[in-house]
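Checklist before submission:
- one chain only
- standard amino acids only
- sequence pasted in full

Submission:
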Amino acid sequence: MCGRAVDRNLNNSQEKLDEEFRYFVDALEGSVNELAITLRSLKQSSYPEERIIPYLKELLDNRAPCKTQIPYRYGEIRWLAAGALRRVYDALDIRETIVLRDVPVSQTGDQISELVWELGVHDEWLHLTSEDCFERLREMGRLPIHDEVFEWRSTKSHPTV
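Returned file contents:
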């Protein structure tokens, strides 16, 4: 009887892992807003699920503008995806470095507004969302850019002597 209870618990545990994985995959294939919310969540937690890696890697080229942080900062999906992938790698003890080239520095809404005012297009862009303004500013080369490196960081706790 004990063996069956253990088997049932293992099956339930695997079912929960599979359900959580399917939830993340569905969210990663949703709207930009859903995608950003999911990536922010993954970036904040340690999710040791190897099956999610190809989905995150696929997003490393996604330059769609999004809310990267709350309070609101705006940036690109690929930056969130790299941070989420780094957390998954760390949870699985994968020491691969992730490098993103020419990433626009994330901007607050106020910073975006200042850049729009400096360009003198405030009245023309008044109807645009912050994400739309971010995208246009990026296309115009008005956002500072840099290379971003996400390196391995041990998430294991080590006893102190």
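Reviewer check: Residues 26 and 35 are 9 Å apart (CA to CA).
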